[in-house]
Amino acid sequence: MAPISTVVTNGADKNGSPHLQTSPTQDQKEIDQALRTFRCLIADLCEQFKGGHPGGAMGMAAIGIALWKYTMKYSPTNPNYFNRDRFVLSNGHTCLFQYTFLHLVGYPAMTMEQLKSYHSTRTDSICPGHPEIENDGIEVTTGPLGQGVANAVGLAMATKHLGARYNRPGFEVVNNMTWCMIGDACLQEGVAMEAIQLAGHWKLNSLVVIYDNNQVTCDGSVDLCNTEDVNAKMRACGWDVIDVDDGCYDVPALTVALSQARSNTKPTFINVRTVIGIGSKVAGDAKAHGAAYGAEDVASIKTKFGMDPEQHFVVQNEVYDFFRDAIQRGQAHENEWNQLLERYAKEYPELHQEFLLRVEGKMTDDWTKIIPSKEEFPTTPTPSRKSAGFCCNPLASKLQNMMVGTADLTPSVNMAWKGKVDFQHPDLKTTCGINGDYSGRYVHWGIREHAMASISNGLAAFNKGTILPVTSSFFMFYIYAAPGVRMGALQGLQQIHIATHDSIGTGEDGPTHQPIALAALYRAMPNLLYIRPCDSEETAGAFISALKATNSPTIISLSRQNLEQYPQYSCREKAQKGAYVFVEEEDADVTLIGVGAEMVFAMRTRQLLQEKFNVKARVRSVLKYKSTPRVVIEAYAVNGWERYADAGFSMSSFGHSLPGPAAYKYFGFDEQVIAPKVAEFLGDVKRDGLASLRGEFRDLNDGHH
Amino acid sequence: MAPISTVVTNGADKNGSPHLQTSPTQDQKEIDQALRTFRCLIADLCEQFKGGHPGGAMGMAAIGIALWKYTMKYSPTNPNYFNRDRFVLSNGHTCLFQYTFLHLVGYPAMTMEQLKSYHSTRTDSICPGHPEIENDGIEVTTGPLGQGVANAVGLAMATKHLGARYNRPGFEVVNNMTWCMIGDACLQEGVAMEAIQLAGHWKLNSLVVIYDNNQVTCDGSVDLCNTEDVNAKMRACGWDVIDVDDGCYDVPALTVALSQARSNTKPTFINVRTVIGIGSKVAGDAKAHGAAYGAEDVASIKTKFGMDPEQHFVVQNEVYDFFRDAIQRGQAHENEWNQLLERYAKEYPELHQEFLLRVEGKMTDDWTKIIPSKEEFPTTPTPSRKSAGFCCNPLASKLQNMMVGTADLTPSVNMAWKGKVDFQHPDLKTTCGINGDYSGRYVHWGIREHAMASISNGLAAFNKGTILPVTSSFFMFYIYAAPGVRMGALQGLQQIHIATHDSIGTGEDGPTHQPIALAALYRAMPNLLYIRPCDSEETAGAFISALKATNSPTIISLSRQNLEQYPQYSCREKAQKGAYVFVEEEDADVTLIGVGAEMVFAMRTRQLLQEKFNVKARVRSVLKYKSTPRVVIEAYAVNGWERYADAGFSMSSFGHSLPGPAAYKYFGFDEQVIAPKVAEFLGDVKRDGLASLRGEFRDLNDGHH
């Protein structure tokens, strides 16, 4: 499709850049001045605090002019208007590139004072070392290299999906582009290569990746570690490729390339040759990458570019004038879109109503009524991954904002609902018999856990609440996804990660598939919920918590194997508190903390303690309880539990390849082993007194076998 | 090179498969019977316990015959002889493929009884659900998809490197091949794509990747999530590509392809069309992937292949006979190699001496004398990343077994030593002016943290102790590398991971680059040392610990910023214990636990407590100490410290983009903030008594700012 050109608007040219008053060929004089000014300003901004990343930003100046002056649809006075183009800076260390253009085109918050706060001690700076989503004009927090590419794929995917559901002939209410700037490094990170495969497979022509090809990384020439034919590779991945030879100055060529990309039928890769740190004495060298250039070189840069070496942070009025039309252009885009929506409301009132809910980030249905009640769950042993299906399938079938996907584990994770439609390019039907289209909300991520999480960050970041991504895989493989899951938590993006086959209960696949330490990472991670429900009712509670957590991702950790159901004890409301009395016991001698798939061992141990050891045990969740010793039972590394318990029966080694029940037995998860250990521990406590426990956490599992 | 064909040996054919008594074209009858037998046996092995992965193994049978009968150099009676070919099963779930061929060619440990233990409750099974390095004939533990490709690149890299150092004209003492079997999934995982780029860049013609192209994954057709032109992509990455159309039966074609690959000048990708679960009623379908076929289908498979449906686990003597020459062939390879070594010893006695040390996995020099003494370190504030350079550079320059690399952070991590030679293909000198050759021991991994770790597992697994990989990057990016680091720990492979820029001291790069939760993962991970030294002397201790840990990887976590040096307190010997009294104090009121880059806050807090609050503080490392309250000070999530401390001053949120010192101040890491909190805490303890502390861990950092 050509998303823009179908919307005929006043002053739009054939290439679909609306309101383009002038063309880069007419503006050559202004462009030259803007380039000089921009590059000297970057050098100054890094020089003042003797640090930062000037080289890339200076090299990319012409690309920035082609984007912000002649190509992108955005509105400085309303940075978040819904149908804006999204810009992603995957090479986030060049953030001054973006900050400075946001300043030049008139984003009110991005004052020169703010620009100058880059690398300062100002705690209210909106110019951090990498772009952060909280700030106007920033669509996603990138930073760790490669993430931005995946985020951009998610943003472009959102456009295609929302367009497929809500656009109608003559009413393209969602048709924005996503422009992603990358450096050499982003083409080496696996997460980017996974995302590139998917963008090509889905033919996301709403996505344009602009490669700042300066052939320099920290170590030196890219040839040190990468000599592939990148254009041929991108074509093999289903992308179109455009080359631009003089990316440092040729704004007209860049503008034509960007405009061509816009009317493409595939995602486009624009390979732009640039010179890192152009103008500096270290231009084209790795030294130009990540350090200030020193007063002398900065002065010589200014002399070279015909600016006054004595003056700093200079932006001439002509340069501001040159970019001044950005605000009007932006407001015109908004107005067009608002007018389009008004006509849309008349033509398609119901669709318009639903669309408004999406724009406001509201659910399209009352989800609280959709999750099955306790009575509707089977009381026979059930794997909690199946319980998750009971909860999520009806939600996904009704809630239009849910996009549910899996890293190639559809038969195992139970996330596919009856009547689901796959998110696919419609052409695949004819080319290889694959059903689905862009309106589909079930995503086959392939065996790409990292991209699944990082693309989902882009889906969630398109517009807060418009899309709620649900990912799924085995819990162990969320160690591949961890960098993406972390970035979701850091950005406060709501997502639900369905992590099945947790702990050693996974069984035969062996230690390579049995998570032991991973839970410690997610329990320590800020702004992330990690929940291990023990049965269907607690799984329902986990989904309610996840749906309420509109500013956090949630991992729901689930079992492969059948779990006892405890309808008489488990409670979705209490579970949301993260902790509650499971089984109360008058004057208990001990509190057993049961967790997720291992609750069954806590319950059986409780019974055995009573029968064989005359010990009364209360079973709880995490909550602290002072007056009796507390023992946690979980088949993970115990790290972190010491805060809530006095002793633990847990894992201190990797797992073993055995059938699930045999694996548990092998590591001593068996009431016949646990109960005596607990009784012995209680004997010691009785002898030495509760005080003896302080801080002296006791490991009760001596590794058995 | 053509590693084999240059060694002319009795009975070697032109294609370089020595001692090939017969050719696949002559053996068609035996081959057909072997294929039938193999496929029925796989079906039986999965059927007995109603589980496992039969489909891939059955589809790959002909590939296995081409490998184990006509191509690979291995010795069943001495599985670990040094110059053997390495086989890696990256699609590890098809492990029955490998186990069954190990049985057929006569690996003594792999009895039929052991084969039958697959998916059983036998705890001493050597047939786990994925191959494990502890067992004969298994080179690496694969499992999580994509890892095996990277491991294979590491094994192939080891061959090129050792060959470059030790081979001499007519004396190819190291010239083995690495054969890596992959499935569709391995071509989607980022870690594999990173490794593929590097193998192409390095022209590792010692590597052959065999693609079991059955176009089926768990979700169904590969077209659901991948429609790239894989051959074109591999060529773009610098690989040669060979297609084999009938991979299910055409052993002659497969043998020719493997033989061509052997005499290639680039790494080779053999794209083999196969049918998953061939013979079964679900052949070619996703259902054939990961479940037993049921008694009826297994019977019909046997009928289809002309075997008796009533009989199970049948291997006719003719089939054993067919593979019987494997043992003699293997012993012949060994003898040749041993004879070659004898001649080599006479011709190159010194080189031979060094080579023997490498084969035995011994250091080539007495490393204990190489690390600088305390007196040689500067006493002025020093970043511990620089201290790491002081320790590692002399080690790397002397120890031939060290291969040190970085994920494109040479200027930041200080791992490059004077006179280092890069590991590169010599051609790069002429093609793009890059210096280096295969004898080089400094590796430019590019921006590929995950592949860096997973390829290093292959380097370390080539032969225990022969190569000691040292990786380096910012600590935060070890979240990308985590799946590889974990597999190293799981396999007990010695490696040193140099993780710089730890905690919020990293500063301006911001929260995206500041690790908060990551340490919790590595502290919880079995068989991994995670060490945060506080100054140069403790850094020396960390290296000694890492070099002594011959069965574990070690992460040394280091600061970007300058750290106070404490020569009067710090001690490399005590540091190796993981905990010791740093500053003793008669009748101390509190024990402060100082860690790594935050030791300075413990020391300053101690002083301020004394001066302003009349509180006596002892400073310690982790060790427990009962009689006084213990406070840990570290800029990470506190999870796990509760075991060793009663209170903590730590992080509960992500970081902030500020200069390092400002970032610490922003989060309250400042003795002016910490000391009063500690004093207040001690007041409470005095009032309520030590017993009041039990388990009630106290967070002293209320987030300041």
Report on this model:
- The structure is a homodimer of 705-residue chains.
- In chain A, 37% of the residues lie in helices and 12% in strands.
- By secondary structure, chain A is an alpha/beta fold.
- In chain A, the strands form 5 sheets. Chain A has a 6-stranded parallel β-sheet, sandwiched between helices. In chain A, strands 16-18-17-19-20-21 form a 6-stranded mixed β-sheet, with helices on one face.
- Chains A, B: It catalyses: D-sedoheptulose 7-phosphate + D-glyceraldehyde 3-phosphate = aldehydo-D-ribose 5-phosphate + D-xylulose 5-phosphate.
- Chains A, B: Residues 382-565 form the Transketolase-like pyrimidine-binding domain.
- Chains A, B: Keywords: Magnesium, Metal-binding, Thiamine pyrophosphate, Transferase.
Summarize this entry quickly.
Two copies of one chain form a homodimer. Chain A is 37% helix and 12% strand. Chain A is an alpha/beta fold.
Features:
705 residues; Transketolase-like_Pyr-bd (chains A, B); alpha/beta; metal-binding (chains A, B); transketolase activity (chains A, B); Rossmann fold; homodimer; 6-stranded parallel β-sheet
Supply the number of helical segments of chain A.
Answer: 24
Order of strands, widest sheet of chain A: 10-9-11-12-14-13
Please name the CATH topology of the largest domain in chain A.
Rossmann fold
Q: What is the rounded Rg of chain A?
A: 29 Å
Which class best fits the helix and strand makeup of chain A? alpha/beta
Average pLDDT of chain A: 93
Task: Identify the quaternary structure here.
Answer: homodimer
* Helical content band of chain A: 25-40%
CATH superfamily of the largest domain in chain A: Thiamin diphosphate (ThDP)-binding fold, Pyr/PP domains
| Reported CATH architecture of the largest domain in chain A | 3-Layer(aba) Sandwich
Number of strands of chain A: 21
Q: For the report, how would you describe the main beta sheet of chain A?
A: 6 strands, parallel
Share in β-strands of chain A: 5-15%
* Most residues in contact, chain pair and counts: A-B, 132 and 134 residues
3D shape of chain A:
globular
Number of domains of chain A: 3
Uncertain stretches of chain A: 1-20
CATH class of the largest domain in chain A: Alpha Beta
Compute the separation of the termini of chain A in Å: 63 Å
